[in-house]
Amino acid sequence: MVTISEHGWIERNQQYLTAAIAAVRVQLDQHIARMTGRQVSNDSAAELLAARGRCAEISEAISPQPALEILCALFRLSSFERDILLLCAGMELDAAFASSAAAANGDAQRPYPTFGLALAAFTQPHWNALLPTAPLRHWRLIEFGQSGGLTGAPVTTRPLRIDEKILHYLTGIQHLDERLANFVSHVTPPARLMPTQQGIADCLVHSWSALPKPRPVLALSGPDRVSARLIAGSACRSMGMTPYSLNAHALPSVPSELHLFIRLWERDAGLGSIALVLNCEDADVTPTHETQCNEFIERINVPLIVISRERRRIENRSAIAFEIARPGTPDQRTAWKAASLESVHGLNGHLDRLTSQFSLNLSEIHAAAAEAKVASDSESAFDALWDACRKQTRSHLDALAQRIDCNSTWNDLVLPEEQKEILHDIVAQVRQRSKVYETWGFGQKSNRGLGISVLFAGSSGTGKTMAAEVLAGELSLDLYRIDLSSVVSKYIGETEKNLRRVFDAADTGGAILLFDEADALFGKRSDVKDSHDRYANIEVSYLLQRMEAYRGLAILTTNMRSALDAAFLRRLRFIVQFPFPDAIQRAQIWRQVFPKNAPTCGLNPDRLAQLNVAGGNIRNMALTAAFIAADRNEPVGMSHVLLAARSEYAKLEKPLTESEIAEWTEMSTTLEEGENAERHS
Predict the structure, then answer these.
(1) What pairing do the DSSP bridges indicate for beta strands 217-221 and 184-186?
(2) Does the CA dihedral 28-29-30-31 come out positive or negative?
(3) CA angle in degrees (0–180, nearest 5) for 574-580-581
(4) At 244, which helix (H) or strand (E)?
(5) Collapsing DSSP states into helix, strand and coil, what is residue 677?
(6) Which string of b and e fits 154-172 if b means at least 16 CB within 10 Å?
(7) Are 414 and 585 in contact (CB under 8 A)?
(8) Which of 211, 382, 494, 596 is least crowded, fewest Cβ atoms below 10 Å from its Cβ?
(9) Strand order in the sheet with 452-457
(10) What pLDDT is stored for residue 666 in this prediction?
(11) Which pLDDT score, from 0 to 100, does residue 448 have?
(12) In this structure, are 414 and 514 located in the same domain?
């Protein structure tokens, strides 16, 4: 037996199929002869022997075997079932078969194969070949067609058709059934995995190759499902299998459709070396969907790799579990060098900064490197690469939190020097994490407490959000405000799940997380009086653990520091108290609040500083005054600010005191007289 090239095999396979169909055609002709009372000629018998001999000759000469022989052996078809399949294939491949079928059926209106025709024409017939549990129908190799538009026709007279996928397979063309292809996508393994990931892929290969069939389920769990998919694809490639990925949410919900899906996949997996990578999402999973997914995993008998965030419990089928962590610093450094170091100049020496800030998988590293190569013509290579990494990580968080554009600078921040020094210390710790934790070895002592968590405490409008923007701008990181309404849930366990999703998504890029008004979520842990109190305490404890493990910077803001749990405060790295601005600070804010392009006239910051409000209120008043002045086509003056101040104080439900506006009374009177005159005119 000689193994030949793919093109040569296809040609010889088609020769085999042609000879096999010719043998069936001869049997039809012999049946027609018997129906018409003619004797079967010696030439016909010789032609049948020649066709079968031709099949045997081709089968012995090539490797692998012809597709028809592989299919018959796989599904254990009898010679009678084989002839039925070839009869249906001949109808699709040979135009003359229709007239022969009509003559064999004795009816010109029935130019198609039927089971009754097969029983009469072929040798060694058996009725159970047509049972739903028999291979032809169980594996959907053939199907019933319409019989002249009539329903309820006997099964022996109903048309038979070969399944399109099976027809293509017999001709030597391999493809995935379109009823499956619409649900799955091809997994393209990378040319090279990270070293640690390659070790896991090798373990997957060993688990399947060393154990007898049926192969166990390989369960990959962890936060980095993209890496798990690449590892699974690489392992399948090493074993000569083509991997396809299926999202568990796409599984058919109707039981009969799910069973058909399983059967078709098992059929295609038998005909070709394919494996299924099932991606089980953890979010928004209903009990019905979970039951359906478990049934699919336990029933389908194909090479199966299951990917999920949490380790799945598989009860009725053997399984081997692997934990897939996000790539560590050594793996990322290796991947960066392989992906970009040779072509992106200036990267060498900065890898530590990249790997300490961003935790990217292999796909994201390649994408960021490719983007940086394009952008490096207009800006420095490292800055371009840093921005490319930020963009790669945004997709993880954009659906969970609000990204804030950071335009504020240190000059915009009006705070006492003590608070500014703490903010600068925060920046230094974020920048030097790699040196302290890894190079100096502090991270090897313990994994706890390595996160940098900060509390910004102070009344509304004192600059807490602006300070977060300044830090994000200084560190060239994205700032995300966490919407507490989407995190806190009345359902037990949902708050932890939502927090986990946020922190997992943020971990990839070390984004700055801003939990606004955090006392609503991180308040004092209550005494346990009922089950709700117990679960509320569990939520707080879970948050404390994630805060300590988070590799980025988490900022919590509160208007009431006293509302926070003391145990929670002990675990914070920094606490910054934002004081209410005094008159000097308010005057400085007034000096900076109007942009350079805004026309002003006669503004007196010291006099405006008599308004006893916080910086956020000052910004609101400046903006309102600007609109008033713009509508009057005038530069912004003290009178416009006075009107804005009245509006802002009314919103605060706070009266303007005489001491705050004593020197503005004359301006206010003049402005009101002008307004009245304009109104009367």
Answers:
(1) unpaired
(2) positive
(3) 110
(4) strand 242-247
(5) helix
(6) eeebbbbbbbebbbebbbb
(7) yes
(8) 596
(9) 402-404, 479-482, 512-515, 553-558, 452-457, 574-577
(10) 55
(11) 65
(12) yes
Q: Quick one: tokens of 60?
A: 């012995």
Sheet with 304-308, side-by-side order of all strands? 184-186, 242-247, 274-280, 304-308, 217-221, 319-323
- In the chain, which residues have pLDDT < 50? 1-2, 283, 342-343, 377-378, 527-532, 668, 672, 675-676, 679
Sequence-distant (6+) residues with CB within 8 A of 184 are: 176, 244, 245, 246, 276
Label residue 662 exposed, middle or buried (CB < 10 Å: 0-12, 13-18, 19+): exposed
513 falls within a domain: yes
Residue-level pLDDT at 327 = 87
Cα gap 670→501, rounded to integer Å? 58
Q: 615 in helix, strand or coil? A: helix
96: Cβ–Cβ under 8 A, 6 or more apart, which residues? none
Helix axes 67-75, 6-35, angle to 10 degrees: 70
User: Exposed (0-12), middle (13-18) or buried (19+): which is 361, by Cβ within 10 Å?
Assistant: buried
Q: Which residues are paired to 454 by β-bridges?
A: 555, 574
What is the DSSP code (8-state) at residue 438?
I
Three-state DSSP class for residue 101: helix
Which range marks the domain in which residue 381 is found? 330-392
What burial letters (b/e) apply to 270-297, b meaning 16+ CB within 10 Å? Answer: bbeebbbbbbbeeeeeeeebeebbbbbb
pLDDT at 375: 59
Report how far residue 192's alpha carbon sits from residue 233's, in angstroms, rounded to the nearest whole number. 11
Compute the CA torsion angle 16, 20, 22, 28 (nearest 10 deg).
-170
Q: What is the pTM of this model?
A: 0.79
Dihedral sign of CA atoms 651, 653, 656, 659 in order:
negative
Decide: helix, strand or coil at residue 123: coil
Q: Would you list the DSSP string of 17-32?
A: HHHHHHHHHHHHHHHH
H or E element, residue 503:
helix 494-507
Q: Which amino acid is at 477?
A: L
Clarify whether residues 434 and 562 are in a common domain: yes
Q: Which of 236, 253, 258 is nearest to 245 (CA)?
A: 236
Farthest CA pair distance, the chain: 127
662 in the same domain as 601: yes
Q: Give the whole-angstrom CA distance, residue 21 versus residue 505.
A: 58
| pLDDT (tens digit per residue) in 266-294 | 999 999 999 999 998 754 556 677 788 88
Please report whether residue 397 resides in a domain: no
pLDDT of residue 292: 83
Measure the CA–CA gap between 395 and 505, rounded to whole angstroms.
9
Q: Which two tokens stand for residue 565?
A: 């749990």
Same domain (yes/no): 122, 241: no
**Cβ distance 401 to 429 under 8 Å?**
no
> 136: which 2 tokens?
């032809």
Question: Would you call the peptide bond into 287 cis, given omega within 30 degrees of 0 as the criterion?
Answer: no
Check if the beta carbon of residue 642 is closer than 8 Å to that of residue 675.
Answer: no
Q: Would you call 76 helix, strand, or coil by DSSP?
A: coil
- Specify whether 572 is located in the same domain as 534: yes
From the number of C-beta atoms within 10 Å of its C-beta (0-12, 13-18, 19+), residue 480 rates as: buried
Q: Which residues contact 316 (CB under 8 A, 6 or more apart)?
A: 298
Question: How deeply is 176 buried, as exposed, middle or buried, from its count of CB atoms within 10 A (0-12, 13-18, 19+)?
Answer: buried
Number of structural domains in the chain: 5
For residues 402 and 315, what is the distance between their CA atoms, to the nearest angstrom? 41
Q: Assess if residue 112 is contained within a domain.
A: yes
Which residues, including other chains, have CB under 8 Å from residue 669's CB and lie 6 or more apart? none
